[in-house]
Prior knowledge:
Blueprint: H1 3-8, H2 11-33, H3 66-102, H4 104-118, H5 122-133, H6 137-164, H7 167-174, H8 179-215, H9 226-233, H10 242-268, H11 273-278
Helix pairs in contact: 2-3, 2-10, 3-4, 3-6, 3-8, 3-9, 3-10, 4-6, 5-6, 6-8, 7-8, 8-9, 8-10, 9-10
Amino acid sequence: xxxxxxxLSRPDAILAxxxxxxxxLAGVLAPLIFPGGPWRMVARxxxxxxxxxxxxxxxxxxxRDLAVALIYGARTSLEIGLVSTCAAVLFGTAIxxxxxxxxxxxxxxxxxxxxxxxxVPSFALAILLVAIYSPSLLSIMAAIAVVSWPPxxxxxxxxxxxxxxxxxxxxxxxxxxxxxxVAWSQILPNVLSPLIVMAALMISxxxxxxxxxxxxxxxDPQVVSWGYLISAGRGVMARSWWLTFLxxxxxxxxxxxxxxxxxxxxxSQDPHFERKETE
Length: 279
């Protein structure tokens, strides 16, 4: 079933698409909507939400507009999620694809190397990498990609291993096509669906990773992210609940929306989905 049909058949997927689209659009247009940036002090500190229509979501301890910070935070968090996920998926697919296509000693060597990364707790490894290379957007994205690629490699390996035995792949190899061409043109298009579903869920995990790193003081101090806002507001949580609640709520809405869309994309690739819907 086409992806668009699966999305339109589910009201929750439509709502998730609208919410996620609004978050992405706000993040992309942030410099145009608020050219002054999120660091400007525009009013008195600790204005509560909905008490000043000039600053509908309130202000922080320095009088900065929280709504502006949330929009810029969306830009940063989504950028980290997308870039780190793309890097992890590309590297993991390459490693898993080579292992599954060639098998034998190549498979054993690459999978043992993958398991070495999985023996170390992901968050602990991410903290170590960011601390070594100093907190910055680049180091955070690189650290998240490093700890995220092993599951992609295992999935890609399983899919390539299964497709390698298919008759049309064997026929392409017997016709004289190179291994690279067969893997690229015959196998990869048929294994993209599960990889896309996994990538959608990995974006959510990347946003959570960045938030956790910022919460422990390893975020990039030069940019605003949702994790940074939660970390900055935790010291005054008792008197200014909105400084932590609103960024946390934004993270929750975004992650739930991505998860619903990933589930809908997975349903679109289910051969029994259309039959179940008609029943």
